From TrEMBL:
This is Glycine cleavage system protein T. Residues 371-424 form the FAD dependent oxidoreductase central domain. Residues 428-701 form the GCVT N-terminal domain. Residues 723-800 form the Aminomethyltransferase C-terminal domain. Coiled coil: none annotated. Keywords: Oxidoreductase. InterPro entries: FAD-dep_OxRdtase, FAD/NAD-bd_sf, FAO_M, GcvT/YgfZ/DmdA, GcvT/YgfZ_C, GcvT_C, GCVT_N, TrmE/GcvT-like.
Length: 808
C-alpha cells in the first residue's frame, strides 16, 4: 500500500468509484480508493439499477442528465460491460392533481432542453401494454431512462480510474482519521496507514460512522427498501418477440411503485408508507453482501394497487424478493462538498439514486477538490444546507417522512409536519394564538400567514385558502403598518481590528460608514453570486451582517475558509442568539417614535441608518430598512427581550391598526419592488450585472475583492442574461418558480420566483431571459400548469418606483 496520496476516497460503491474516476479524468492521478470488502459491498450491489434524468430541481436534473450521458463513455473507456438498457420510461398519473403536477414538472424541463412529452393514458398503454389505461389520467414519456448493471457500472468507473493511474485497495478498512497540524490526514486502516491531503467520505451505508471518526454527525440514515422479481411472464416474452423491444420503465406515482423488465419477467419496487429505518443508531461493520429479511406484509397495500394497475402481475409467480438498505438525507438529496470547519474533509454520501446521480456527484466533487468550486450550482445537495439542528432524531423523522412520500405530490404551499416544531422563538405561542400558519426554515418555525378562525391551509397548485388573508396582510402594510418576525435571517457579527478590510475583500459592495448599512453582494472567483447581505457598520470594528437564513452554514464555511490566521478578524454566527421583529408601512415611524425619546425623523434617522436604542425598556438594534420596500425598520434584540418588544410594538401600533404579516405577504410585497431573494434570483448561476445588482458592485473601491476581475469582465461584456419582472395574465394559479418564459412563442428563459402581488392586484413573475431581448415590453408568455399565458415586461417596480416611500 502507498504511504502517501493526494486524495484518499473511502468507499468503493458507485459513488466513491465515480469520484475517483473524475479526479483522474481531471488530471489528479495520485489518488487512492480504500474499500473494506469488495467493490459494491454497501447498497450498490443489490440496487435495481434504474436511472432517469427528470428531477423537480432543474439543477439536480442537469446532474442526472450528465450521469446518464456518461455511461457510454465509461463503458467504452474501461472496456467493462455495464449492461446498459435505455428502454425509455413513463411516469403515470392516476389523478388530475398528479397530472397537473406532471405538467409543471415537464414545463420546468423545457428550457433545459428536456425531451419528455405528455401523452394520454391510451397512448401510454400502446407503448406499455402491461398497464391498464382505465386506471390512469395520462402520462409523461421520457426517452432518457433505462437501467444498468450496478456491479458492471461500478467496475467501469473503477477500471477507468485505474487506467488513468488511480490505485484501489480492497479488503482495507479505514478505522480512524486523524488530522495533523499541517492539515494532512492520517488515514488509519487495518492494513496500515496512508497520509493524504484530502479525504473523501463516500462510505455509503457507513458514511455516518466514518463521519463520527472526525466528530461529525452527518444527517444520513439508511432505510429498508424492497423490490420483487417475477418468474418469466408470457406477456413480456410476447411483447419482446413482436416488437423487438424491451418493455419500458414505469413509475406509477399513485400506486407508489416502479416497474421494469428483468430478463423475461418484471421487477416491481415500492416506497411503502409503512417504512422502516435500518440500523438507526449505528451501521454494523459486520454487514456485508447480505440481504434483509423480506417483509411482504408491509408493502401489501402498494402491491395491491400495483397489481390492479398492471393486471398481468396477477398471474405471475414471484421468483425473488430483495430487501436491502440504502441511505437518505432528510430531504432525499445527496450530501456533497467540503464539510464546514474542517480542512480537506469532503462528503459524497446520502446518494439515494446512485445510478441517476453518481456521475454528477463525482463531477461536482472532483471539480470542488481540484478547482475550489463545484463548477455549477449544487446548493440543493450541498452538505452545508443543514445546520446543527439536524440531529440523529431529526434525521430519523425527516428521512422516514421523505421515504414514505417519495412518490407523493408536494404542493408548492405544503409544509411537511415531520420533526416539528423544533426551533421556536419566544413569540411563537403568541403568533400561533394569532392564527399563524408556520413553515420550518432551517429548523425554525416561521410564520407564513395568519389564518382567520376556521380557515386552514389547503394544499393546491392553484391559489388557495390563504389568498384572501395574505392579500389583507400585504395591503395592511401598504396602507398603515404591519409587524413580522424576522428571526429566520442569518446574522453574523464580524469583529476585530481587521474586520473592515476583511469584509471589503470578501464583499463586492461598499463597506458603509459607522451607523449605516449597505447592500453587498458576495462573489466567488468566477464572479458569480454566492451571497447577498446587508452589512451594518456598528463602530468600524464590529459589523452586523444579515443574510439568508438557509445559507448560514454555507456562508460560514466560506467565511471560515477565508479568515486570516492572525486572529485579527472574528466571525460569529449569532443564530437564535439575536432575534428579529420588523415593522413596515407608512405608519411605521409613528409606531417607533412612541417607544423612544430619540429623534427618529427622516433627517435624524435616514434610510439605511442603524442605531442601538432602547425601545421602551428593552435594548435593541434598529435599522431603517425593510424588504417590503416600504418605510420600515428591522429591530434586533436578544431573545429574552423579544416577547416584551413584541407586546410593546403591538400596543404602540394599536392606534394605527397594526397587523401581523407573514412570509407569504412579504413575498407579495417584495415582488412589487422586484427585490430578488437568495437561492431563487441570486445563486451561483448568475453574475451581479445579470441579476440587476450591478449598482451594488463597487468596482472603483480600492479593495481587491474576491471576484473583482470577473465582475469587471461581466460589466464590459454584459453577461448573457437579465433578471426581469413580468406581469402575467394568470387565471387561478400564479408562478411558483422554474416555469419556462417564452418570447414570440420560443422558450428562452425561466422563472425564478413570483406570486400574486396583492397590493397591486397583479400576478408577477421574476425570471432570467437573454439580455438581447430583455428590454422588449411585449411578446412574452409564461407557462403555468400547461397553459401558455401572455405576459408583459414590467420595466419599473410596480410600487413606489422612485423609492420615495422607502427613503423619506
Ligand atoms: C433494494 C434497492 C434498490 C435500489 N434501486 C436503485 C435504482 O434502481 N436506482 C438507483 O439509482 N439507486 C438504487 N438504489 C440506491 C443505490 O443502491 C445507492 O444510491 C447507491 O448504492 C449508493 O452508493 P454509495 O457508493 O454511496 O454507497 P455504498 O454502495 O453503500 O458503498 C459504500 C462502500 O463503502 C465501503 N466502506 C464503508 N466504510 C468503509 C471504511 N471505513 N473503509 C473502507 N470502506 C468502507 C463499503 O464497504 C461500501 O462498499 C437501490 C438501493 C436498494 C437497497
Amino acid at each position: 500500500m502507498k504511504s502517501h496520496a493526494r486524495v484518499v476516497v473511502i468507499g468503493g460503491g458507485v459513488v466513491g468509484c465515480s469520484v475517483l474516476y473524475h479526479l483522474t479524468k481531471f488530471g489528479w492521478t495520485d489518488v487512492v480508493l480504500l474499500e473494506r470488502s469488495e467493490l459494491t459491498s454497501g447498497s450498490t450491489w443489490h440496487a435495481a439499477g434504474g436511472m432517469h434524468t427528470i428531477n423537480g430541481d432543474p439543477n439536480v436534473a442537469k446532474l442526472q442528465k450528465y450521469t446518464v450521458e456518461l455511461y457510454k463513455e465509461i463503458e467504452e473507456y474501461s472496456g467493462q460491460d455495464i449492461g446498459l438498457h435505455m428502454t425509455s420510461g413513463l411516469m403515470l398519473a392516476a389523478t388530475k392533481e398528479r397530472f397537473d403536477w406532471m405538467k409543471s414538472l415537464l414545463a420546468k424541463g423545457k428550457y433545459a432542453g428536456g425531451e419528455a412529452t405528455l401523452i394520454s393514458a391510451q397512448e401510454a398503454h400502446e407503448m406499455m401494454p402491461l398497464l391498464d389505461p382505465k386506471q390512469f389520467v395520462g402520462a409523461v414519456f421520457d426517452p432518457h431512462e433505462g437501467h444498468l448493471d450496478p456491479y458492471g457500472t461500478t467496475h467501469a468507473y473503477a477500471k477507468s480510474a485505474k487506467k488513468n493511474g488511480a490505485e484501489i485497495y480492497l479488503h482495507t478498512k479505514v478505522e480512524d482519521l486523524v488530522q495533523l497540524e499541517d492539515g494532512t490526514w492520517r488515514v488509519i486502516t487495518d492494513k496500515g496507514e496512508i497520509r493524504a491531503e484530502h479525504v473523501v467520505n463516500a462510505a455509503g451505508l457507513w458514511a455516518r460512522e466514518v463521519g463520527r471518526m472526525v466528530g461529525l454527525e452527518l444527517p444520513v440514515l439508511a432505510m429498508e427498501h424492497m423490490y420483487l422479481i417475477t418468474e418469466d411472464m408470457p406477456e413480456v416474452i410476447e411483447f419482446n418477440k413482436t416488437t423487438g423491444k424491451e418493455l419500458m420503465h414505469c413509475v406509477d406515482f399513485d400506486g407508489e411503485i416502479y416497474i421494469r423488465q428483468e430478463r423475461n419477467g418484471m421487477l416491481m419496487g415500492t416506497y411503502e408508507k409503512d417504512c422502516r429505518p435500518w440500523s438507526p443508531i449505528e451501521t454494523p461493520w459486520t454487514f456485508g453482501h447480505e440481504l434483509l429479511a423480506e417483509d411482504l406484509e408491509r408493502i401489501t397495500n402498494e402491491l395491491e394497487i400495483g397489481f390492479r394497475h398492471f393486471p398481468a402481475f396477477n398471474n405471475a409467480g414471484i421468483k425473488k424478493i430483495i430487501n436491502g438498505p440504502f441511505t437518505f438525507s432528510p430531504d432525499g438529496n445527496p450530501l456533497v462538498g467540503p464539510v464546514r470547519g474542517m480542512t480537506n474533509f469532503w462528503s459524497a454520501c446520502a446518494v439515494m439514486a446512485g445510478f441517476s446521480q453518481g456521475g454528477g456527484v463525482g463531477l461536482a466533487l472532483a471539480n470542488w477538490i481540484i478547482e475550489g468550486d463545484p463548477g455549477f450550482d449544487v446548493f440543493a445537495m450541498d452538505v452545508c444546507r443543514y445546520g446543527d439542528y439536524a440531529t440523529l432524531a431529526y434525521t430519523n423523522a425527516k428521512v422516514r417522512e421523505n421515504y414514505s412520500r417519495r412518490f407523493s405530490i408536494r404542493y408548492p404551499n405544503e409544509e411537511l409536519p415531520g420533526a416539528r416544531p423544533l426551533l421556536t422563538t419566544p413569540v411563537y405561542d403568541k403568533l400561533k394564538a394569532a392564527g399563524a400558519v408556520f413553515g420550518a426554515s432551517y429548523g425554525l418555525e416561521t410564520p407564513l400567514w395568519f389564518a382567520p378562525e376556521g380557515v386552514e391551509d389547503k394544499f393546491s397548485w392553484r391559489r388557495s385558502t390563504d389568498f384572501e388573508a395574505v392579500g389583507r396582510e400585504a395591503k395592511a402594510v401598504r396602507e398603515s403598518v404591519g409587524l413580522m418576525e424576522t428571526s429566520g435571517f442569518a446574522k453574523y457579527m464580524v469583529s476585530g481590528e481587521g474586520a473592515k478590510d476583511w469584509l471589503d475583500h470578501m464583499l463586492a459592495g461598499k463597506i458603509p460608514a459607522v451607523g449605516s448599512m449597505a447592500l453587498a453582494p458576495m462573489l466567488n472567483e468566477a464572479g458569480k453570486l454566492i451571497g447577498d447581505f446587508t452589512v451594518a457598520n456598528m463602530d468600524d470594528e464590529d459589523f452586523l451582517v444579515i443574510g439568508s437564513g438557509i445559507a448560514e452554514d454555507y456562508h460560514m464555511r466560506w467565511f471560515e475558509q477565508h479568515l486570516p490566521d492572525d486572529g485579527s478578524v472574528d466571525v460569529e454566527p449569532l443564530n437564535l442568539g439575536l432575534l428579529g421583529l420588523s415593522i413596515a408601512g407608512p405608519k411605521a415611524r409613528d409606531v417607533l417614535a412612541k417607544l423612544t425619546h430619540l429623534d427618529v425623523s427622516d433627517a435624524a434617522f435616514p434610510f439605511m441608518a442603524i442605531r442601538e436604542m432602547d425601545l421602551g425598556m428593552a435594548p435593541a438594534i434598529v435599522g431603517r430598512v425593510s424588504y417590503t420596500g416600504d418605510l420600515g425598520y428591522e429591530i434586533w434584540m436578544r431573545p429574552e427581550y423579544q416577547r416584551y418588544l413584541f407586546e410593546t410594538l403591538m400596543e404602540a401600533g394599536a392606534e394605527f391598526g397594526i397587523s401581523l404579516f407573514g412570509l407569504r405577504a412579504l413575498n407579495a410585497l417584495r415582488l412589487e419592488k422586484a427585490f430578488g431573494s437568495w437561492s431563487r434570483e441570486y445563486r451561483p448561476l448568475y453574475g451581479p450585472y445579470e441579476a440587476g445588482l450591478g449598482r451594488f458592485v463597487a468596482l472603483k473601491k480600492p479593495a481587491d475583492f474576491i471576484g473583482k476581475k470577473a465582475a469587471m469582465e461581466e460589466k464590459l461584456s454584459g453577461g448573457t442574461l437579465r433578471l426581469k419582472t413580468f406581469i402575467v395574465e394568470a387565471k387561478d394559479a400564479d408562478v411558483i418558480g422554474d416555469e419556462p418564459i417564452s418570447y414570440k412563442g420560443e422558450v428562452c428563459g425561466w422563472v425564478t420566483s413570483g406570486g400574486f402581488a396583492h397590493a397591486s392586484g397583479v400576478s408577477v413573475a421574476l425570471g432570467y431571459v437573454p439580455k438581447e431581448i430583455a428590454d422588449e415590453l411585449d411578446g412574452w408568455s409564461v407557462e403555468i400548469l400547461g397553459d401558455i399565458l401572455p405576459a408583459r415586461l414590467q420595466p419599473q417596480p410596480l410600487f413606489d418606483a422612485n423609492g420615495s416611500r422607502m427613503r423619506n
